[in-house]
Amino acid sequence: MILYEQSETPSVRPGEFDVAGRRVAVRGFPYTGEVGTPPFRFDPVARRFFARRQDGTILAGPDAVDAWRRAFARGPAGPALIGPTGGEEDIWGAYHAAAQGAREAGRAVYLLDPPPAGIPRDSAGEFAALFVWIPGKENPPSVSAANSRGIAAGYVLPLLPGWTAARDVAHEAVRRAAAAGGSFLAPVLPSEEGDARRSIVEAASALGGGEDLFERVHHEDFGEAIGTALAALSEACSRQRLAAFLPRPAGRGEPPGNAAAAGRLEEKAQDSWKDEHGAALLRAAARWIEEFGRDLVPIVREGNLRKVFPFGADLAEEVEQAFGMPIVR
Length: 329
Prior knowledge:
By secondary structure, the protein is α/β, with parallel strands linked by helices. It has 13 helices and twelve strands.
């Protein structure tokens, strides 16, 4: 039996999070408690599986938009991630209230596995909906619900060595995303920490996936398998005309040019995943753009970026290119 309790206080956590290569500055949890189905949930921020109990209590956040707006207005600048859902959204309304609150706080918003009732209307580019897919999972009805409300929607695929990193699984994921009406399929690289590796083995055993998984997950380097999987995924996405990145929405409170440039830097960082130092610098530049607060387009156009940019000429050149402006030397 699943019991629900409602809280008057939103559960919001600020920090430096990453979801499929996109920076998230604050995360909202409309429902808390690992209870219900499916038996395992893959979290693209923690990059690992979490086991779910069949019985227990789920804490639902408030259904008041203004409470969530005030909570999201605090903390560092940048996009918000809402989710996961806890079910029974039609009754509790916490997911929809959290999404609307983040929007009204001026943030770009990523919706993680949103239920149909939790998806806002009239997006105006402020939202992107992402659905975690693993083999055996049915196409969620929320993809078409998001599309019908003007929200870009698609899949994220955890690339798990010995299981979902296989070429045939990548091709199946792309086929499913296209059939569901998705516009993207973004990979998520798994955490290599010990508890994350154990969670992969446990989930795959329960869900019927992978061969020789224990040895491959615990004793092999993830790098080679993931590199091969990324190449296969990119090829399959190109054939189906799907983007291989999450779209970067633009919030009401951020200049659209800044949001677009930050998104381009994040995509370049994701493509440079083997160069950890270079990718980290690109992500730092994207964070600086989001936190700058003012519209950088006229500053870059006038050739004044390097007067305010704190990270040096080489990275400033990357930022100028991200804004699509002529490079000032």
